Amino acid sequence: xQLFTDGACSGNPGPGGWAFLLRYTASGKVRExxxxxxxxxxxxxxxxxVIKGLRSLKESSKVELWSDSTYVVHGLRDWLDAWIERGWRxxxxxxxxxxxxxxxxxDLREVHEITCFWVKGHAxxxxxxxxxxxxxxxxDKFR
Length: 143
Known about the structure:
Number of helices: 4
Structural class: alpha/beta
CATH superfamily: Ribonuclease H-like superfamily/Ribonuclease H
CATH class: Alpha Beta
Radius of gyration: 15 Å
CATH architecture: 2-Layer Sandwich
Number of strands: 5
Strand content: 25-35%
CATH topology: Nucleotidyltransferase, domain 5
Distance between the termini: 33 Å
Helix content: 40-55%
Strand order of the largest sheet: 3-2-1-4-5
Largest sheet: 5 strands, mixed
């Protein structure tokens, strides 16, 4: 299972959009979904795309997550466990931003085996470009 995600925002905060593309590796079937919010941030849209993609899975799965957000990739791969151990505090002892969304991802990580990959944004990666297109459309819709 491959999950490609992207988030976009016009202003930060401002109207935003999220999108995911899910590829079932066994069948090659692809599913896309997008949405948005009138007043949000880019990081919230990046996180929401991942949450929506993982929640769309009907059963526990091994998921390759591809994102152009270092915030998402480092958060899931490097920071999340330490934040939880410190009571949702950063290494600088400040509250974790977007904790409500990170808590959801912590729960989803218990259901799915997630391996994170970073992909450079706007670098002709087809699935990332498609997610960017869908997320940007949602920004326009929520203006």
